[in-house]
């Protein structure tokens, strides 16, 4: 392995975007569970767990003076939607962190199965969150897709669904692409779009703090979400493998 890295100028399957080769690679004798904490993953975990919990813990605490008003149907649907969306983003991030350090054929296959489970479940949670909030808006004749949060949100939902469909198809039914090699040629684009979607989802969460309901009832702080989103990306992005993106 060392020779192959030397022959390629130090760039190999186990070289992350930032750092030295092997800094964010799963060891051959390690289980997949260690991938959640390898390299800068600890930073990502702190960021994503806090950003996912922020919109859940704050509006339901008795310290929030708007808590009684929050119990109406709009507040309940908002909280349910937030729960589902937060769970979805959290699961999808875990799916990314799990798969990033894999580099041997066996690790990649095992990781891909769990990656598909995390991301498919996360996508379903996101869709459920969309259904909950839209049902509430329809039942109350509310406005649809007017705020930047709502517009970017629906775009992100659609892209996540497409991302999941393509990911499952290229791994489990490669014949859809004509051949296994054709399916594998799509992998790097699937990975790239996955990182873009993670960023979009975090931006959507940040924009949620600027909605009318959030400003009038929840008073969530934009700066807090932005800081935690940046912390999450600081943990995720350095673990990107150059070779997996064709760089």
Q: Let me know the number of strands.
A: 0
Structural class based on helices, strands and sheet pairing:
mainly alpha
Spatial separation of the terminal alpha carbons: 19 Å
List unreliable stretches of 5+ residues: 1-12, 66-71
Order of helices and strands: HHHHHHHHH
Level of helix content? 55-70%
Report the average pLDDT across residues. 84
What is the beta-strand fraction? Answer: under 5%
**Could you give a short account of the major beta sheet?**
none
Shape: globular
Number of helices: 9
Q: Radius of gyration, Cα only, in angstroms?
A: 20 Å
Structure notes:
- The chain is mostly helical and 247 residues long.
- It has 9 helices and no strands.
- The protein is globular.
- The two termini are 19 Å apart.
Task: Provide a concise account of the structure shown.
66% of the residues lie in helices and 0% in strands. By secondary structure, the chain is mainly α.
Observed structural traits:
globular; mainly alpha; 247 residues; single chain
Q: What is the secondary structure topology, with strand pairs?
A:
Blueprint: H1 2-7, H2 41-60, H3 73-99, H4 105-139, H5 148-172, H6 180-185, H7 187-208, H8 212-218, H9 222-236
Helix pairs in contact: 2-3, 2-9, 3-4, 3-7, 4-5, 5-7, 7-9
